[in-house]
């Protein structure tokens, strides 16, 4: 009997220690002062990103929106052909490598769209790492036409300061979308009522600077600027498994996810996404 009590007491102590450790880790990453978004109902939300895998930044939010009977649309402007291959594409011929990687990443994104329940997915063929070289008026006309066609009530994209971690395609698209949104607020009949940009709280930024060499290197290029402060957080613990599975579907980009979200594929999602339990956004205002 005493042995059983000792065993139970030991197990309870172990559980308490583990929970305390997880709570401590989470406190280093999250900002609980940010307002948590409630349920969304009846919205039509358009996400606009340059690359396949950019949607992972808000994959939990995407799944939450679909679970709450909102309509979701994702526009991805490139096929990500300039990205890493993770050894899944023959790189001996650079031209063929780009074409093959573009096809693979499109397939990966289409699978993610099905997993997350996207209502509409459009993938374009603008050059990866070349968005800023495209005539801005051409890009903005395309985006305006898509907004007019789909009539979204909410827009979501990257921030227009540093594009989360300095990617020029991120910044360019964010600036175009923001410009269209702000101009549209002055016009009657413009369907979009709110716009949000993906961002990170300071604790997460501080951690990313420590663990990710690429984030640290790119972020340093914007020493006089920083990500906009979050104004809204979306709780995604319930949808963590979907976010984990979406990352796994982007097989070609696995090294990037392993760097930015260490051990995401090893730790059970019901634990992992009690730590990484929020996605953060800042609302764009006039």
Please give the structural blueprint.
Elements (H helix, E strand, L loop, with lengths): L1 H28 L14 E6 L9 H9 L3 E8 L15 H23 L3 E7 L9 H15 L3 E5 L4 H4 L1 H17 L9 E6 L2 H10 L1 H7 L12 E4 L4 H10 L4 H7 L8 H7 L2 E6 L3
Parallel strand pairs: 1-2, 1-4, 2-3, 4-5
Antiparallel strand pairs: 5-7, 6-7
Helix pairs in contact: 3-9, 4-6, 7-8
Structure explained in plain terms:
With 286 residues, the protein is an alpha/beta fold. The protein has a single domain, classed as Rossmann fold (3-Layer(aba) Sandwich). The protein contains eleven helices and seven strands. The chain has a seven-stranded mixed beta sheet, sandwiched between helices. Strand 1, helix 2 and strand 2 form a beta-alpha-beta unit. The chain is globular, with a radius of gyration of 20 Å.
- The level of helicity is 40-55%
| Beta-strand residue percentage | 5-15%
CATH superfamily placement? LmbE-like
Spatial order of strands in the largest sheet: 3-2-1-4-5-7-6
What structural class results from the helix and strand content?
A: alpha/beta
Q: Could you name the CATH topology? A: Rossmann fold
Q: Strand-and-helix sequence, N→C?
A: HEHEHEHEHHEHHEHHHE
Kindly report how far apart the N and C termini lie.
69 Å
The number of domains is: 1
What's the total count of β strands? 7
**What radius of gyration results from the CA coordinates?**
20 Å
| CATH class type | Alpha Beta
CATH architecture: 3-Layer(aba) Sandwich
Anisotropy-based shape: globular
Average pLDDT reading: 92
Number of helices: 11
Which regions have little confidence, pLDDT < 50, spanning 5+ residues? Answer: none
Main sheet: strands, sense, barrel: 7 strands, mixed
């Amino acid at each position: 009997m005493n042995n059983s009590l000792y065993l139970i007491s030991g197990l309870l102590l172990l559980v308490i220690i583990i929970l305390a450790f997880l709570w401590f880790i989470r406190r280093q990453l999250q900002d609980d002062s940010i307002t948590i978004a409630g349920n969304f109902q009846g919205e039509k939300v358009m996400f606009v990103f340059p690359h396949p895998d950019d949607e992972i930044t808000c994959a939990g939010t995407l799944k939450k929106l679909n679970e709450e009977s909102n309509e979701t649309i994702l526009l991805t402007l490139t096929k990500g052909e300039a990205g890493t291959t993770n050894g899944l594409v023959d790189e001996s011929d650079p031209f063929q490598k780009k074409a093959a990687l573009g096809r693979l990443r499109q397939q990966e994104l289409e699978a993610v769209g099905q997993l997350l329940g996207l209502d509409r997915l459009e993938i374009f063929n603008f050059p990866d790492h070349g968005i800023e070289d495209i005539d801005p008026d051409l890009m903005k006309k395309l985006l305006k036409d898509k907004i007019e066609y789909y009539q979204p009530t909410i827009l979501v994209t990257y921030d227009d300061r540093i594009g989360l971690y300095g990617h020029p395609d991120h910044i360019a698209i964010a600036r175009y979308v923001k410009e269209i949104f702000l101009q549209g607020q002055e016009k009657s009949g413009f369907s979009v009522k709110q716009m949000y940009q993906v961002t990170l709280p300071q604790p997460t930024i501080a951690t990313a600077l420590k663990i990710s060499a690429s984030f640290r290197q790119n972020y340093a290029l914007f020493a006089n600027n920083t990500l906009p402060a979050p104004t809204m957080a979306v709780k995604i613990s319930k949808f963590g498994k979907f976010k984990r599975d979406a990352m796994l579907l982007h097989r070609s980009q696995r090294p990037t996810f392993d760097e930015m979200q260490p051990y995401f594929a090893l730790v059970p999602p019901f634990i992992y996404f009690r730590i990484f339990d929020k996605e953060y956004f800042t609302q764009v205002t006039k």
